[in-house]
């Protein structure tokens, strides 16, 4: 026999079997049915298999060769998929494309469980739709992560003793690009390790030339419509990073602090006329522009309309106002309004028409408005200020207070609310159309409950600060004219050349211009991601015409507002349609106790470490079993269980492959392939177990496919798991052993082999989106496969099933379970075969007796002593009677299972011991000193033990009485 191998499949053909319409895998046929093939022949075939595997480069390993699935093969399988072009959309297939834009991870990032979650879920969608035959595209890429990347490089430079300012902008950005080229691919390679079947030939980076062009175009179009403006407003300011940051980049934590009580004297009053103000930030008092009380607070009614003197400001006066916003019960009920340094104060000041006074420099030091405190760091100023207030008698007291502190997500420093000149996008007009998209059904959000949150946020949206004071990112496409007021005279252009031309046209040839030093918020470019990656603003681009709008956007629910809603708004604004038809939101990954993973708690689980120990498939399966939008508690127990699931799949494959005909047995293969399972007439003709398992499979395919379509991935995983483990592995594989090893009928064995191969292949298909590696490895060992599993056709739905056969086999299962329970109850040795009389009506007897070999094998019955009748046997009084289901009973002779006299003696001794233990427990409970003085949990424990002992005692007495009655009857 000549072996033929290729880079994609290990296959062999023989002239004697050239008529067969499938390829043979030489790794498959190491043994035939174990009872009919010699050891020497098996060894020869193993050698041939090893030679073929070596020639192929060892891409796949047969279950025949390996004890379990080798996780180290995963990377080789992945590279093979990619090299074969399977990740690219097959446009030739036609049909509606299925497109998922990957949420671009930060270029600075390394893999964490959040990445593992989104990669798993998106890859499941992609692999399923690819197998369904749709042109499928998963768009990958990374985000330039302005703040995070700049921070990383600045820290690297600091280690060299170099500051960003020392290098200058051009040299610094050059260094960042160098860093990106060296380290920026880490997260991409790690995502590949999770099995992400993205089209990497279309990988994008948010600073790529084409995407940068899209960002500039978006800015210009929004500006032309009057939706982008420049102004001084309150922002989140990072003193260390020296930039505004988005709300998403601010994390709030409850931290211990101090509440300071300070006297504000009333101008023109006596020494006793003062207001005591409680504040957590006394250093901001230099920016006070008013003092406010609640109009219903009678304590301060007499001061409303007067002036208060701001402490340590050399007598600066501010008005005392009333507003219902003031909380009478917080502190003293008096509020200092510092609109330049508090978001709420800022809004209140705008409502009341108060001036805004800034006392802070961009680096977190106080400015000249603070007088003698100018130049001090904000926290140093706080200490000195309090000391001075104590000296002047204006400090009342200070007390411990827990505050909600805003910290930078990147640097960890406390964020400073600060009024700063920035660029903003007017969001209200954009939000209106995004709200309509959901209300009109153009956009579906899953889970549905997040629609309310989406609607609430968009209905109360604030303008978006899109400028950042960084050097790394998309430079704002605005130029200023030297010598002109930059707030009044600026030019928006696509390039320096275009800006210069516009300036020269207006101001003459000798004009000089300079570009705005700020860059755009990273979220601005990310909001264009679904369509800019496909070629927008060139809407004639092939990818844009073919794949836009995208099908599903999958991401964490925590960025619904900051990213998803903005993409919807931008997509509608620039393309006239929503950028995706469905939004699928997942929750957070928490530890086994439900706590958020953090380095502080030491409960972070590294996906790469998890993969090394449990395999990628087990991790993916575990993550995918969660419910959409709900947080998932990740435990090692779950991972261990799903690793066992991987092994169970492997062992099932090993069993099936070992029990297929030898490759040279052409007649056996022709008989096997003659069995079909896609027609009603072929299914109903099958023997009962095969008809049952094929029918159950066909029901499963319909259920699983429906769940995939609804994106109910948790249901998918559980449905497949239950069928494989409970129906296929625990029942049908055991049933098949009766066909393969005990029937002596080749035709019976053939139908079982065909069913095993058909069902297992279908399971691999259904499970492939969840567990791609082990399923592909097993698939490659099957003789019936025509191509790689990743691009194989999804099982068709609405295939025939025989509901009557399902019910009949369930009766057989019930009978088997009942007999097994009796054997366990009487501690019958597993190897011991017992007799049985099966009693039922004629119809039931007909199909149960037709599977007597199966019943005998599964129940460990003596096949020669299994009788079927419509009435109980004559020795029924010497048997254990079990009822399996209505109209189906069994009588199991006691003498077959136990030595009745010996068992009576054993149970009698055991009963004495059990009674003594029970009496001891009851004695403790009858003691008032114990019940009244012992701890409650101890008493409760004793009561539980007593109840359990009483139950066991009753069961043992009943069983002993039953055995004694049988001894009397026998005598």
UniProtKB/TrEMBL annotation:
Which reaction does this enzyme catalyse, per its entry? tRNA(Val) + L-valine + ATP = L-valyl-tRNA(Val) + AMP + diphosphate
Q: Which residues form the Valyl-tRNA synthetase tRNA-binding arm domain?
A: 899-963
Q: What are the residue boundaries of the Aminoacyl-tRNA synthetase class Ia domain, all occurrences included?
A: 77-635
- What residue stretches are annotated with the Methionyl/Valyl/Leucyl/Isoleucyl-tRNA synthetase anticodon-binding domain? 692-833
Please state the Enzyme Commission number of this protein: 6.1.1.9
| GO BP field | post-embryonic development; reproductive structure development; valyl-tRNA aminoacylation
GO molecular function annotations of the record: aminoacyl-tRNA deacylase activity; ATP binding; valine-tRNA ligase activity
Entry coiled-coil feature ranges: 897-966
Q: Which UniProt keywords apply?
A: Aminoacyl-tRNA synthetase, ATP-binding, Coiled coil, Ligase, Nucleotide-binding, Protein biosynthesis
Pfam families according to UniProt: Anticodon_1, tRNA-synt_1, Val_tRNA-synt_C
Cellular component GO terms held in the UniProt record: cytosol
Q: Which NCBIfam families match?
A: PRK05729.1, valS
Q: Which family does it belong to?
A: Belongs to the class-I aminoacyl-tRNA synthetase family.
The record's listing under PANTHER family reads: VALINE--TRNA LIGASE, CHLOROPLASTIC_MITOCHONDRIAL 2, VALYL-TRNA SYNTHETASES
What protein name is recorded for this chain? valine--tRNA ligase
**Gene that this sequence comes from:** LOC107803237
């Amino acid at each position: 026999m000549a072996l033929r191998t290729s880079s994609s499949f290990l296959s062999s053909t023989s002239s004697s079997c050239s008529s067969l319409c499938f390829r043979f895998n030489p790794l498959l046929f190491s043994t035939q049915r174990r009872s009919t093939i010699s050891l020497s022949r098996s060894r020869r075939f193993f050698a041939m298999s090893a030679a073929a595997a070596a020639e192929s480069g060892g891409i796949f390993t047969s279950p025949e060769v390996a004890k379990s699935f080798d996780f180290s093969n995963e990377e080789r399988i992945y590279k093979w998929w990619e090299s074969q072009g399977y990740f690219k959309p097959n446009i030739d297939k036609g049909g509606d494309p299925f497109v998922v834009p990957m949420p671009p991870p930060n270029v600075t990032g390394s893999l964490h469980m959040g990445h593992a979650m989104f990669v798993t879920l998106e890859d499941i969608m992609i692999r399923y739709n690819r197998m369904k035959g749709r042109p499928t595209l998963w768009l990958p890429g990374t985000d330039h992560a302005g703040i995070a990347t700049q921070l990383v490089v600045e820290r690297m430079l600091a280690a060299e003793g170099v500051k960003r300012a020392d290098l200058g902008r051009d040299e610094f950005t050059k260094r960042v690009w160098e860093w990106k080229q060296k380290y920026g691919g880490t997260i991409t390679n790690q995502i590949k390790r999770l099995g992400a079947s993205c089209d990497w030939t279309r990988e994008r980076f948010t600073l790529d030339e084409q995407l940068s062009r899209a960002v500039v175009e978006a800015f210009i179009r929004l500006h032309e419509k009057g939706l982008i403006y420049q102004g001084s407003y309150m922002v989140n300011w990072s003193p260390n990073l020296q930039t505004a940051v988005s709300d998403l980049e601010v994390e709030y934590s409850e931290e211990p602090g101090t509440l300071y009580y300070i006297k504000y004297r009333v101008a023109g009053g006596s020494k006793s006329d003062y207001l005591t103000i409680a504040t957590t930030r006394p250093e901001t008092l230099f920016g006070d522009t008013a003092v406010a009380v609640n109009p219903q607070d009678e304590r301060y009614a007499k001061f409303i309309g007067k002036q208060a003197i701001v402490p340590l400001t050399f007598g600066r006066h501010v008005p005392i106002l009333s507003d219902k916003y003031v909380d009478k019960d917080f502190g003293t009920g008096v509020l200092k309004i510092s609109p330049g340094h508090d978001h709420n104060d800022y809004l209140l000041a705008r409502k009341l028409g108060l001036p805004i006074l800034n006392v802070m420099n961009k680096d977190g030091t106080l400015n000249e408005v603070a007088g003698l405190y100018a130049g001090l760091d904000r926290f140093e100023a706080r200490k000195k200020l309090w000391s001075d207030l104590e000296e002047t008698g204006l400090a009342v007291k200070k007390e411990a207070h827990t505050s909600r502190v805003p910290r930078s997500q990147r640097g960890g420093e406390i964020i400073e609310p600060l009024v700063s000149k920035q660029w903003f996008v007017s969001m209200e007009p954009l939000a209106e159309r995004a709200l309509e998209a959901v209300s009109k059904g153009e956009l579906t959000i899953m889970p549905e409950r997040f629609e309310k949150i989406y609607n609430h946020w968009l209905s109360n949206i604030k303008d978006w600060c899109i400028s950042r004071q960084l050097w790394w990112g998309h430079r704002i496409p605005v130029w200023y004219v030297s010598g002109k007021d930059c707030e009044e005279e600026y030019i928006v252009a696509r390039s320096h050349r275009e800006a210069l031309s516009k300036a020269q046209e207006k101001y003459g040839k000798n004009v000089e211009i300079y570009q705005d030093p700020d860059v755009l918020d990273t979220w601005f470019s990310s909001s264009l991601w679904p369509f800019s990656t496909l070629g927008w603003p060139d809407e004639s681009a092939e990818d844009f015409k073919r794949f836009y709008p995208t099908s599903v956007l999958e991401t964490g629910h925590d960025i619904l507002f900051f990213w998803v809603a903005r993409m919807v708004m931008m997509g509608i604004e620039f393309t006239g349609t929503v950028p995706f038809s469905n939004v699928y939101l997942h929750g957070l990954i928490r530890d086994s106790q439900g706590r958020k993973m953090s380095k502080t708690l030491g409960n972070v689980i590294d996906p790469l470490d998890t993969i090394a120990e449990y395999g990628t498939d087990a991790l993916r399966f575990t993550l995918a079993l969660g419910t959409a939008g709900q947080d998932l508690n990740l435990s090692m127990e779950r991972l261990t269980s799903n690793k066992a699931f991987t092994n169970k799949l492997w062992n099932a494959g090993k069993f099936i492959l070992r029990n297929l005909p030898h490759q040279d047995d052409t007649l056996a293969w022709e008989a096997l392939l003659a069995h079909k399972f896609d027609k009603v007439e072929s299914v109903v003709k099958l023997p009962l177990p095969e008809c049952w398992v094929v029918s159950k499979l066909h029901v499963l395919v319909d259920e699983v496919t429906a769940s995939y379509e609804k994106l109910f991935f948790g249901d998918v995983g559980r449905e497949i798991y239950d069928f494989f483990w409970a129906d296929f592995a625990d029942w049908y594989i055991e049933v098949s052993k009766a066909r393969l090893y005990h029937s002596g009928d080749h035709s019976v064995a053939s139908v079982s082999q065909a069913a095993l191969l058909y069902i297992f292949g279908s399971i691999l298909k259904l499970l492939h989106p969840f567990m791609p590696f082990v399923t592909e490895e097993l698939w490659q060992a099957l003789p019936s496969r025509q191509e790689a599993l990743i691009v194989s056709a999804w099982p068709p739905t609405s295939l025939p099933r025989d509901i009557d056969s399902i019910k009949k086999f369930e009766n057989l299962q019930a009978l088997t379970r009942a007999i097994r329970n009796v054997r366990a109850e009487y501690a019958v040795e597993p190897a011991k075969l017992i007799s049985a009389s099966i009693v039922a009506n004629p119809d039931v007897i007909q199909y149960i007796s037709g599977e007597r070999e199966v019943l005998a094998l599964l129940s460990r019955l003596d096949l020669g002593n299994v009788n079927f009748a419509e009435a109980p046997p004559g020795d029924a009084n010497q048997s254990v009677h079990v009822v399996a289901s209505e109209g189906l009973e069994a009588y199991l002779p006691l003498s077959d299972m136990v030595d009745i006299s010996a068992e009576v003696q054993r149970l009698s001794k055991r009963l004495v011991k059990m009674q003594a233990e029970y009496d001891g427990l009851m004695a403790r409970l009858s003691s008032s000193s114990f019940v009244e003085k012992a701890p409650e949990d101890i008493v409760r424990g004793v009561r539980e033990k007593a109840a359990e002992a009483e139950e066991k005692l009753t069961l043992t007495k009943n069983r002993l009485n039953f055995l004694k009655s049988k001894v009397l009857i026998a005598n």
